Backbone:
């Protein structure tokens, strides 16, 4: 089988299975098998695949036709021009989440201009948190854009944090990102890890697990960004099978309606932002009416909404008074 025939067969099978973006999926899977780029692929249509390559490609096409996401089959997804490892333990980064990066960087720059300070293009001195980091795409991308800033990235899933740590190492920013297992900004296990008085009497306590876990409890941030779970469970039946059956439900569903997590997220952010600190939240397609009123308190100012390319209100941002 040559490349032309393999690609034609793969496209036909995915089209028959009603797979979204079937041509792109077939191309990506063939590129993954061959370890080549798209330019090479179309410059060598008569190149013969080995039996092993052909069988591997056909196997991947069959799995994609059965509903597995292309990103899980290749193990990667591009975000902000960077390649991220993805597994079934993390949400696949979406293009709309890049608006979080855009708004965060714009807000930081505007804040400096408003204060008549030179822009901190390298992020020197900034403390930034990414809540619900998943693959780490938000924290890592911001770390690449702000090479002198420091970061906290939290997630309730240890498996997701393991993926995020590998991505941080891949992009050479692991030394500036502290990863913490936490429910929003509340560390998991802090209560259980508290040392018992009887165990530390008459001796100075060593650096405990609790001190490490709760090290960010009193930390204040210049920016908190989050792409929280925002799909309602009542919408589950309407999701594409690639999403519903293969992506982690803890990262997808934010409650029955989808916006239930935002109240706690905004309340915790208010406690952990410096005066003038910035909150940037990604929204679900219908979340704005329920979420924006949560910022109508004396704690927030300069509230703004950014639409995505489909004209859906996608990013809600505000500054701490």
Residues:
């Amino acid at each position: 089988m040559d490349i032309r025939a393999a690609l034609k067969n793969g496209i036909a099978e995915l089209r028959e299975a009603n797979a979204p973006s079937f041509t792109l999926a077939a191309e990506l899977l063939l590129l993954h098998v061959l370890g080549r780029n798209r330019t090479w692929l179309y410059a060598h249509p008569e190149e013969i695949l080995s039996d092993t390559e052909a069988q591997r490609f056909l196997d991947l096409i069959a799995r994609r036709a059965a509903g597995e996401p292309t990103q899980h089959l290749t193990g990667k997804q591009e975000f902000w021009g960077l390649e991220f490892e993805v597994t079934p333990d993390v949400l696949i980064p979406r293009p709309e989440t890049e608006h979080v990066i855009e708004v965060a960087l714009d807000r930081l720059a505007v804040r400096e201009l408003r204060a008549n300070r030179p822009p901190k293009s390298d992020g020197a001195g900034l403390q930034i948190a990414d809540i619900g980091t998943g693959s780490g795409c938000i924290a890592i991308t911001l770390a690449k854009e702000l090479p002198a800033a420091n970061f906290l990235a939290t997630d309730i899933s240890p498996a997701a944090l393991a993926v995020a740590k590998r991505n941080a190492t891949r992009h050479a920013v692991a030394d500036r990102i502290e990863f913490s297992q936490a429910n929003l900004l509340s560390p998991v296990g802090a209560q259980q890890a508290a040392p018992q008085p009887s165990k530390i009497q008459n001796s100075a306590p060593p650096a405990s697990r609790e001190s490490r876990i709760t090290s960010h409890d009193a930390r204040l941030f210049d920016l908190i960004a989050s792409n929280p779970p925002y799909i309602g469970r009542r919408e589950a039946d309407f999701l594409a099978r690639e999403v519903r059956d293969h992506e982690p439900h803890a990262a997808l569903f934010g409650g029955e309606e989808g916006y239930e997590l935002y109240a706690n997220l905004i309340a915790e952010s208010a406690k952990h932002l410096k005066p003038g600190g910035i909150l940037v939240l990604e929204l679900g397609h219908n979340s704005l009416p329920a979420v924006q009123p949560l910022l109508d308190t004396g704690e927030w100012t300069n509230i703004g909404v950014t639409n995505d390319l489909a004209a859906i209100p996608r990013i809600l941002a505000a500054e701490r008074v």
Remarks:
- Confidence is low (pLDDT under 50) at residues 191-214.
